[in-house]
Amino acid sequence: MSDAPDLPEGYEFSADTDRVDVERVHGWLSTDAYWATGRPLEQQQRAMAGSLNFGVYDTVTGEQVSYARVVTDHALFAWLADVYVDPSVRGKGVGTAMVGAIREHLRPTGVRRVLLATSDAHGVYEKVGFAPLEHPDMWMALYYTPPA
Length: 148
Fold this sequence. Notes:
Blueprint: E1 11-14, H1 22-32, H2 41-49, E2 52-58, E3 64-72, E4 77-85, H3 94-106, E5 113-115, H4 122-126
Parallel strand pairs: 4-5
Antiparallel strand pairs: 1-2, 2-3, 3-4
């Protein structure tokens, strides 16, 4: 377990992948996250297997209340993805504290850049230091058409 001093009382942050409730996370993402709606469980499991996985848990029940994963080379670059907070705890600061704890978890690796994409949570990420790309005209993407 890692420290996340900004978490509200009654919640704890963990970087222990074994604690992640894979079925719960898949349910959240595949049914309630605009970027992952319909994502198959097998695809989610593969994504998790290739990532660092983080969660916030209720200290009384042990129930997972939020999730995020990071794809990284552990040296220079990281991508923060699949950040999700259960609707029952939204507005309590759980998401902001979790992202802050992830930022601190990555700091010792020497990673120089952590990217993410969001259409609706800019304020959450700005609170922990994220900012718009300085030179978005330098960035490109390769898009694949999903297999039929």
